[in-house]
Amino acid sequence: MSDKFQKLLGDLTAQYMMDVQELRDEVIKLKSENEFPKETPDSSEPAVQQQQQQQQQQQQRQQQQLQQQHQQQEQEQEQQQPQQQQQQQHQQHQLYQREDSLQSSGSLHSGDSLQTSAGLSKADLHADRLDRALTSLSRVEVEDEIPAAEVNHCARIANFLQSDVYELLVGFIVMMNVLVMGAAVQVQGTELGYSLAYPGYAEPNAGWQVAGEVFAGLDLLFICLFTMDLLLRTSVLQIRFFKTPSNWVDLLVVISGWIEIFGSGFMDPFFTRMLRLVKFGRAFRAMQLSKVSHSLKIMGKCITASVGVLFWSLCLLFIIQCIGGMMLSILVRPFMEDTEIDPEVRRLVFRYYGTFSGSMLTMFEVLFANWPTACRILVDNVSEWFGLWFIIYRCLVGFAVLNVVNACFVQQTMSVAQQDTELMIITKEKTKKAYDRKMHILFQALDTSGDGIISWEEFAVLLTDDRLRAFLSAMEIDPSDLQGLFEVLGDGSGNISADEFEMGARRINGAARAVDLVQLVSMVKRLDSKIESSATCSRQLRQLQQHQQQQQQQQQQQQQQLVLRSTLKEANNNNNNKQQQQQQQQQREVSTPRPVAKKKTEIRVPLHAEL
Which portions of the chain have biased composition (kind: Basic and acidic residues) (predicted)? Predict the structure, then answer.
């Protein structure tokens, strides 16, 4: 189920519930008026209530059924796989149409319900309408499942028609058809040779008479097979079928084949022969085998790419041939006009050089075919100097110009081959497989213990075994540094497994590639960035250390200044205290009376008196 179906189902369910709710009152009113006699209100009310209860129970049962159906449909929706986008669009389109039809039918049913006078109530009509809607929607769901299976089946058929197996089968049928056509031409040629009395062709036996009917039957069989192939590819690919030019060739071949079969009796023989020539276009169907054969594919691409070179090469050769043919025709014209020369000789020269077309054909023979015949006619009959002309022409045009043209073709082919992505992938895969196979052989030769692991003792045999060293050299592996090679191949465990040996040998195979150089450059850049980041970190660390040292010095200086200030402050405080004490002492001395001391008189005797 799609989202549109769920939405439609929800709308119908809601509409049904609303209609039932509206009609319930109407049913109660109608039945109370018509069916129940109005004798007493006590006798009618219980019957009406009982009928209402029955209707409610019926509505509940219907709701439960709808819910169960809705749950089942949701479970089916969860179990179903997601469909494709085209499928969903087709389904939505059908649902839109179905919704319109249901809405129109719903309006008709609602109109009919108003006209009914007996039999079913409006609720029953709505229930019947909802059942029909659910049935139709379930049919839509079942019908929509069928295109899904058909789409999957068509997808499988389309994949088979585009597979390599089908291409090989059709290619085999095409080749058999070509062989049958060749056999038919051979039989017709044999009969024609006998009728012309050509030497070596005897009268055909009785079996040859049946050959025409056999070839006609085989031709009809091949036309039927090609028609089936055309119908299958047209029905599956549809419009994409006509976007491929080769499919138009197949269509033309099939149409011409049926025209030849049904119109060979009344058509012009020339037109019939032209239709037979169209049948050879079936051989172009074999070109589609390029999807299977990569060699055929690269040849087809090279031929397609060399069309421009071919055109200009033919133009150059045509100009050269025109100049050479006209020169010879003008030079030998006096000889052909001379009446004294033998007419047979003049006719022979005229046959090769008398006209422009004859001269052109002769020059192409000189360039690509048997040139001595055309040269000898002029050398033996006209002049020997023409021999020098032919030698110069053959050396310049036949050697120089043709080799240049061939070189252009080769260069164009090589460029196409080098630019072809698929061919490059195939070549790389083949080279990889061949190299892995050789490395596997070398691993088995080194693994003397047979345990699937190579140790250093087994790997060191490469130093002494000349044959293995030569094998490594052929594989473009330098055996000079085996210790480093062993470390590169292994994972550091001291042993090398088969997978590690093959993967490591593949990595070190050959010279350095552009990818290796790019990786090396990126690694060097990352290393430089890491070194720069480490240098930046070291500089920042040194700056941080210097800053810390400066802070420590500043802190020490601040501490010293604080100590000095505290010392000075203490000294000042001591001095102040001393001064205060002195002042206090002086004040006390001033405030207390001092006793009068007796003065002692001292008699000083002169020194000379004492003496």
Answer: 29-41, 599-611
What is the CATH classification number for the domain harbouring 477?
Answer: 1.10.238.10
Q: What pLDDT score was predicted for residue 133?
A: 46
Identify the residue whose tokens are 């055909």. Answer: 204
- Domain of 283, CATH number, reads 1.20.120.350
What is the structure's pLDDT at 282?
Answer: 64
Tokens 């069916």 — which residue? Answer: 35
Cβ–Cβ under 8 Å, residues 391 and 371: no
Let me know if residue 595 belongs to a domain.
Answer: no
Strands 495-497 and 453-455: antiparallel
Domain count, the chain: 4
| Residue at 524 is within a domain | no
Which parts of 490-595 are beta strand (E)? 495-497
Nearest C-alpha neighbor of 188 from the set 173, 209, 206: 209
The 10s digit of each residue's pLDDT in 262-300 is: 776 666 666 666 666 666 666 666 655 555 566 777 777
The whole-chain average pLDDT of the chain stands at: 72
Query: Structure tokens of 57?
Result: 């129970």
Q: Look at residue 600 and tell me if it is in a domain.
A: no
- Contact predicate 357/386, CB 8 Å: no
Q: What is the CA radius of gyration of the chain?
A: 57
Does residue 85 sit within a domain?
Answer: yes
Instruction: Please tell me whether residues 442 and 368 are part of one structural domain.
Output: no
d(CA 506, CA 104): 74
Q: Among 419, 439, 463, where does a domain finish? A: 419
**Quick one: 399 and 365 in the same domain?**
yes
Same-domain pairing of 74 and 111: yes
Residue 198 domain boundaries: 164-292
182 with 197, same domain? yes
pLDDT at 310 (0 to 100): 86
**Please, are residues 27 and 121 in contact by the beta-carbon 8 Å criterion?**
yes
Confidence of residue 1 (pLDDT cuts 50, 70, 90): very low
Distances (CA, A) of 45 to 251, 254, 314, 430, 467: 84, 86, 111, 96, 116
50 and 172 co-located in one domain: no
Judgement on whether residues 261 and 199 belong to the same structural domain of the protein:
yes
Which residues fall within 8 angstroms of residue 176, CB to CB, at 6 or more apart? 222
27 touches 123 (CB < 8 A) = yes
Rounded to the nearest angstrom, the gap between the alpha carbon of residue 109 and the centroid of all alpha carbons in its chain is 56
Same domain as 433, residue 404: no
Q: What is the dihedral of CA 562, 568, 572, 577, to 10 degrees?
A: 80
Domain endpoint, select from 466, 489, 511:
511
Beta-carbon count within 10 A of 397 CB? 18
Task: Give tens-digit pLDDT for 479-530.
Answer: 666 666 676 666 666 677 777 777 777 666 656 667 667 777 888 888 888 8
Angle at CA 184, nearest 5°, toward 180 and 188? 170
Give the pLDDT score at 110: 41
Mean pLDDT of 135-155: 50
**DSSP tag of 396:** I
Q: What contacts 405, CB < 8 A, 6 or more positions away?
A: 309, 313, 316, 317
Phi, psi for residue 513 in degrees, rounded to 5: -95, 175
